[in-house]
Amino acid sequence: MDTSGFLSTHSFWSIKSDEDVVETFGRATSNFESSSQKDLYKRPTILLHIYKDPDAPLPLPPPAYLDSMPDPTETETMTMLSFYSFPVPSIQDPEEFGETLRKVWKPFAALGRVYVAEEGVNAQMAIPTNV
User: Fold this and answer.
1) Between the CA of residue 14 and those of 19, 26, 69, 71, what are the distances in Å?
2) First to last CA, the chain
3) Residue spans per domain, the chain
4) What is the pLDDT confidence band of residue 120, given thresholds at 50, 70 and 90?
5) pTM
6) Neighbours of 76 (CB within 10 A)
7) Dihedral sign for Cα atoms in the order 83, 87, 92, 97
8) Tens of pLDDT along 8-46?
9) Closest Cα partner for 113 from 130, 98, 91?
10) pLDDT band for position 1 (50/70/90)?
11) How many Cβ atoms sit within 10 Å of the Cβ of residue 118?
């Protein structure tokens, strides 16, 4: 496919917010629908150029409780865990709460299914025994 004229006919912009993502897909769709080169592309196309921002803040250090934790990949067994909790007050944002649980539990290599609702949490999990 010849893309030699691509850079001269396409513009670049930063994507920094959800609104920018929506605009980007809108532009791609609009450009595709008005393109005379539909035979080259089967659907709208977006080309991303990603770079690391040298001024970006450094990530936070790992929490202290992970400092002496054994490597979960070195375990030979898993411990089954099942629990439920109905906190008071109720969970205000189940999506955000679930995302927080995923971030906190990721280093432990926890497996399973956790249901989060405003009423509470219900989980059936397997955790490496050494952690």
Assistant:
1) 11, 15, 40, 39
2) 52
3) 1-56, 71-128
4) very high
5) 0.52
6) 7
7) negative
8) 456 778 888 889 999 988 888 888 888 776 667 778 878
9) 98
10) very low
11) 11
Q: Six-digit token pair at 56?
A: 């970006």
Is the Cβ–Cβ distance between 126 and 111 less than 8 Å?
yes
User: What backbone torsions phi and psi does residue 91 show, to the nearest 5 degrees?
Assistant: -75, 120
In this structure, which amino acid lies at residue 10? H
Q: Are 85 and 121 in contact (CB under 8 A)?
A: yes
Q: Describe the chain by its helix, strand, coil percentages, rounded to 5.
A: 30, 20, 50
Spatial distance between the Cα atoms of 30 and 37, rounded to a whole number of angstroms: 13
Q: What is d(CA 102, CA 94) in angstroms, rounded to the nearest whole number? A: 12
- Is the link from the previous residue into 89 a cis peptide, with omega within 30 of 0? yes
Q: Which DSSP category does 11 fall into?
A: -
Measure the CA–CA gap between 18 and 22, rounded to whole angstroms.
Answer: 6
